[in-house]
Amino acid sequence: MFAKYDAPPYTQTSGSIPFIDFGGGWAIAGAQYGPDTLKGKTQAQIAVALSEPNSPIAQAVIGSANVLTVALCEQTGGTPAAVCQSKGVQTAVRAMGGS
């Protein structure tokens, strides 16, 4: 899996870390957002930004979490439903071309 999906055309370069394989159904290579997103921010500033949906930090962090959750929900058959059917996860499903 690693040799196949951790190389172009799936990633820009080989050797992307982290690499996550979700049961052979999904693979994610590399960071989900750039380090500049959090650069120079304190934990308190990040926490405040996460509570503001339109902040760049919330969009990057929560958006990434929703994409990872879509992959997990596919592997678990949509359970737990409260998570897999949540608004954010369903928005991510649609953005990723699902229904």
Notes on the structure:
The protein has 99 residues and is mainly alpha-helical. The chain has two domains: 1-30, no CATH class; 33-99, no CATH class. Helix content is 45%, strand content 8%. It has five helices and two strands; from the N terminus they run H-E-E-H-H-H-H. A two-stranded antiparallel ribbon has the order 1-2. Strand 1 and strand 2 form a beta hairpin. Helix 3 (56-75) packs across helix 5. The longest helix has 20 residues, at 56-75. The radius of gyration is 15 Å and the shape is flat. The two termini are 27 Å apart. The model has no long low-confidence stretch (mean pLDDT 89).
How much of the sequence is in beta strands? 5-15%
Q: Tell me roughly what share of residues is in helical segments.
A: 40-55%
Largest sheet: 2 strands, antiparallel
pLDDT < 50 runs, ≥5 residues: none
Indicate the structural class.
mainly alpha
N-end to C-end Cα span: 27 Å
Order of helices and strands: HEEHHHH
Overall tally of structural domains: 2
Total helical segments: 5
Number of strands: 2
Strand order of the largest sheet: 1-2
Any idea what the radius of gyration is?
15 Å
Question: Which word captures the global form?
Answer: flat
- What's the mean pLDDT score? 89
Question: Descriptors for this entry?
Answer:
2 domains; mainly alpha; 99 residues; two-stranded antiparallel sheet; single chain; 2 strands
Topology readout:
Layout (H helix, E strand, L loop, with lengths): L1 H4 L13 E4 L3 E4 L13 H8 L5 H20 L5 H4 L2 H9 L4
Antiparallel strand pairs: 1-2
Helix pairs in contact: 3-5
InterPro entries: DUF929
Pfam families: DUF929 (PF06053)
